[in-house]
């Protein structure tokens, strides 16, 4: 039974390359045409493959519908939370998870610092979009025309002398973030708070969320916080792998 399932599933990546006839499928699987036909018929019955008028097979609409449904039901917060907790246990600082929705960047999860000095961020509240590290990552992933349109209509409050002053500076920073694959907020929102962030990618490579580690200067300096960047990026990569289905969930 497991061999049959394995063979049937092996047909799908073959057809993802383009339509194939019965002989091509049989050759790829290393089986007789009758076996390949039986597998194709079963997949066809379930809508996972489709037989064209030229007798070649292609991926079926049901497969795309299942993929879309699965993506819509993925909860990045549920997948990420255990990773965020583990990161918090390793470094002790506040960990955030954020997403971009309807022209706002919102925190959807937070693990509090173990230190007495706490941050006032709240789950469900928007971040300071022109300075927050997570916002830079999420907006940097937008197509260029969308980035420019958004940057032009944003306000640029000067929370501190290090805040982003205008659209041109913001677009320049987003370009740098897009190139390097990580972001910081070093006193841009609050002079005493620093933050490093990394992106979480979906199966298509797009940024679906961003996570960060933040800490006040009284706990660690900006330079000390930046030494955590490799750990933050590894955590984001682990979440990306699990979210996109490239790696299995780690046992809890």
Automatic annotation (TrEMBL):
* Record keywords, A-Z: DNA-binding, Transcription, Transcription regulation
Q: Which domain of life is it from?
A: Bacteria
Q: What is this protein called?
A: IclR family transcriptional regulator
Lineage at the top is: Bacteria, Bacillati, Actinomycetota, Actinomycetes, Kitasatosporales
Q: Where is the HTH iclR-type domain?
A: 2-61
Q: Provide the IclR-ED domain boundaries.
A: 62-245
């Amino acid at each position: 039974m497991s061999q049959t399932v394995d063979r049937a599933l092996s047909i799908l990546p073959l057809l993802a390359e383009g339509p194939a006839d019965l002989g091509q499928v049989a050759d790829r699987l290393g089986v007789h045409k009758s076996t390949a036909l039986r597998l194709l018929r079963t997949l066809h019955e379930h809508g996972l493959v489709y037989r064209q008028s030229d007798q070649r097979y292609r991926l079926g609409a049901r497969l795309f519908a299942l993929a879309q449904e699965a993506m819509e039901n993925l909860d990045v917060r549920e997948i990420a939370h255990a990773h965020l907790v583990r990161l918090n246990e390793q470094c002790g600082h506040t960990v955030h998870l954020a997403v971009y929705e309807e022209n706002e960047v919102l925190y959807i999860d937070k693990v509090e610092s173990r230190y007495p000095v706490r941050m006032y961020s709240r789950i469900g509240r928007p971040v300071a979009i022109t300075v927050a590290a997570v916002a830079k990552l999420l907006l940097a992933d937008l197509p260029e025309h969308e980035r420019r349109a958004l940057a032009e209509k944003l306000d640029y409050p000067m929370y501190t002398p290090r805040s982003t002053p205008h659209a041109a500076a913001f677009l320049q920073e987003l370009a740098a973030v897009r190139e390097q694959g990580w972001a910081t907020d070093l006193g841009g929102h609050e002079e005493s708070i620093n933050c490093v962030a990394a992106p979480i990618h979906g199966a298509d490579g797009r940024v679906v969320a961003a996570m960060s580690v933040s800490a006040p200067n009284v706990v660690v300096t900006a330079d000390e916080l930046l030494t955590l960047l490799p750990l933050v990026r590894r955590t984001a990569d682990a979440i990306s792998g699990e979210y996109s289905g490239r790696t299995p969930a780690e046992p809890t």
